[in-house]
Amino acid sequence: MTLTEGERQPQVPAFTPDTDPGDVIRWALAAYPGLTMPSAFNLNGVVLIDLAVRAGYAGEVVFVDTGYHFPETLATRDRLAARYPELSFVTLNAGASPDDGQTAPDLYAADPDACCAARKVGPLQRHLAAQQPPALLNARSRDQARTRADIPFVEEGARVKVNPLAHWTRERLEAYAREHELPVSPLYHDGFLSVGCWPCTRAVRPGEDARAGRWAGRGKTECGLWAGDGRL
Ligand code: SF4
């Protein structure tokens, strides 16, 4: 969000490890009317969608179809869209496929940063540039990976990111999903604790963190949406 002269960022409450994520969302909805929610429909994202609806969110859920998603991810999106008709599910790059010419064949192997930039970060950045939401609701949590251990409830930067689940553990997220019978991707139960594109995701092994299966062995941990020079 770009502030004009005289504008001030809303005061962030003193959220604590005991804060109800719903309170964070309700604060965000009041502080940043018109905010939006990107999602990849992982466990965190599914929980955030449910919590957000309960808190009164009725905006967009924006998903980027890279063309390399697992069918289970697309099916999870469709199940969520059916369950939450008050939300507007937006798929960018809808119908993309590996041979659509957007990137060279197998770019994901040769240069995954360039592939993510072209097929994932770029479409979302262009959508946000057009929509200019005042903030983003995001589902990352600290225990997903060491690189996310310091995520605050509210991040400033190129855009304000509100992270209501920053402090929730995987166990807490799983318990919430069970309690509310949320449509978590079946891949999750096969060890895909964080699911991205099929060429760049494997199941997590015992003792690994939830994102260890993303770009495993390639020295890459983030797609570029939340870290790096082009981050949101
Ligand atoms: S996760 Fe892999 S296939 Fe998907 S956009 Fe990034 S590099 Fe390409």
From TrEMBL:
[4Fe-4S] cluster binds at residues 115-116, 197, 200. Its EC number is 1.8.4.10. Its cofactor is [4Fe-4S] cluster. The active site is at 223 (nucleophile). Its main location: cytoplasm. One of its GO terms (cellular component) is cytoplasm. It comes from the Bacteria. Gene3D superfamilies: HUPs. Belongs to the PAPS reductase family. CysH subfamily. It catalyses: [thioredoxin]-disulfide + sulfite + AMP + 2 H(+) = adenosine 5'-phosphosulfate + [thioredoxin]-dithiol. PANTHER family: PHOSPHOADENOSINE PHOSPHOSULFATE REDUCTASE (PTHR46509). InterPro entries: PAPS/APS_Rdtase, PAPS_reduct_dom, Rossmann-like_a/b/a_fold. GO terms for molecular function: 4 iron, 4 sulfur cluster binding; adenylyl-sulfate reductase (thioredoxin) activity; metal ion binding; phosphoadenylyl-sulfate reductase (thioredoxin) activity. Binds 1 [4Fe-4S] cluster per subunit. Catalyzes the formation of sulfite from adenosine 5'-phosphosulfate (APS) using thioredoxin as an electron donor. Pathway: Sulfur metabolism; hydrogen sulfide biosynthesis; sulfite from sulfate. This is Adenosine 5'-phosphosulfate reductase. The keyword Plastid does not apply. Keywords: Cytoplasm, Iron, Iron-sulfur, Metal-binding, Oxidoreductase. It is found in: Cytoplasm.
